[in-house]
Amino acid sequence: MYEATCPYCNLTADPEQQIIFETETCAYIQKPSEQKVLEGSGLIVPKRHAVDVFSLTPEEWRDTQELLLKAKAYLEERYANEGYTVGWNTGEVGGQSIPHAHLHVIPRFSDEPLAGKGIRYWIKQKENKRGAMSTKL
After folding, report:
1. What's the whole-model pTM score?
2. Which of 11, 39, 88, 107 is most buried (CB neighbours < 10 A)?
């Protein structure tokens, strides 16, 4: 599938978008304007328009793993980072703002103000607790 208006279906349409590595089915990309706070961050995206992580093919999963390992080596050589936050946002409620599957690969550093805070940090704050009436039985 292909979506004409999808930025991840059209990786070369944005001159700022950089394809760092690619396989037959996926690409690891970085965009300099996204580096101001999350230095070294990038995305692994399928080339096919897959709406979310749950619609990836076995080949896309395999290529995602290959690119993740290549990105890890690349980031460690270039940034000497000390950890990673790696994750998928899926669905609008899950934080997905572009309806094309994309895996965030974010190098982490001990001198960050939020060092040690992972994916679940914000979600598990007491302000995020659902109301008693919202649980399904």
Report:
1. 0.91
2. 107
